[in-house]
Fold this protein.
Amino acid sequence: MPVKADSRSHNSQHMYNPSVSGGNVSSVAGSRLFVYEVKGLRQNAETDKINTPIRKSGSVFITVPYNRMNQEMQRITRLGGEIVGIRSVSESNGQSPPAATAKQDTGKSMTQATPKAKKDIPVNLYKPKAPFVGKVISNEPLVAEGGSGIVQHIKIDLSGGDYRYLEGQSAGIIPEGTDDKGKPHKLRLYSIASTQHGDDMNDKTVSLCVRELEYKDPETGETVYGTCSSYLCHIEPGADVKVTGPVGKEMLLPDDEDATIIMLATGTGIAPFRAYLWRMFKDVEREANPDYQFKGKAWLIFGVPYSANILYKEELEEIQAKYPDNFELTYAISREQQNAEGGKMYIQNRVAENAARIWELVQDPKTHTYMCGLKGMEDGIDAALSAEAEKNGANWEDFRKQMKKEHRWHVETY
């Protein structure tokens, strides 16, 4: 599965108190000046307009009038900066900075008491020339009777190595054997379907969700099977398997426990979302991750051909039953449900039905949207959201680009 080129996957977005941003301030307060101490500003065309020298490290000091404080905070956040201190330029008039906006120069960010350490993102710990050789623990079917195709949940033992990964990354698999030129097969990438602790919570396994690729050769009419997907779907427990990676920074979850996470999946595109949902809601995961106790909202819109193809159905519905206020589950079952026009119900139809709500949610800087599955899903989803953006006097393409810049629009399709 082609993983997009690495880019930073998320950016700490802070919500600011809108009452701070001018409007009701008196002329005295409005004329007061504050100095923001900012770290981490990126050098780019936008920052070139700031009259303050940008340094590669250290702090930048920006003077802001009281009634521009909120707008300036948001602009600094958009530029990747972090406000580490705010002080009044002059406190000789006896006024102290407004409590809603500023702490005195404590050296701490206003929005969080102690900045979190940068997330350690493991990438390419094992390369194709020296892969990690794991052992298959189990290979379980995920399609119920009456469904189409073969999809398997494959758990691989990583003991004895240093293979670590985060939710949303992908693993490379090198199938056994050689191609028709006698060369070893090239690796294929698969989204990881387990949390960083693995299905057994021992940090020693990785799980994949793999569909056997099967199609008719247009010239010969013969059925052709995907090299790596067939190898994995029929692999026996106990067999060795060559694993590379992990790769990918595009699909990582934000650290924010109050985030809204919208997930759009087709078929095996459910893999990273299974990892997210387990991390958010499974009891054993919540116990293992005291620093991540999800309190936000997760919404999965999942497109499949038949009910029997709803992968991980029981587990998804169990989470929905246990956390009805935090997890919403919406299916688009193309061969069994009809859209408003009487045609098949695809994921883009569900997005269109819910477009007003999705549009409202994505206005919030705490909302992250993830899309994983077949490339064909993108155009229909864009069309549905374009129509909604237009109703609101906005251009979807521009808005989507802005979300991408803010690291809250994440796409991995194949």
In short: The longest strand covers residues 132-141. The CA atoms of residues 170 and 192 lie 5 Å apart.
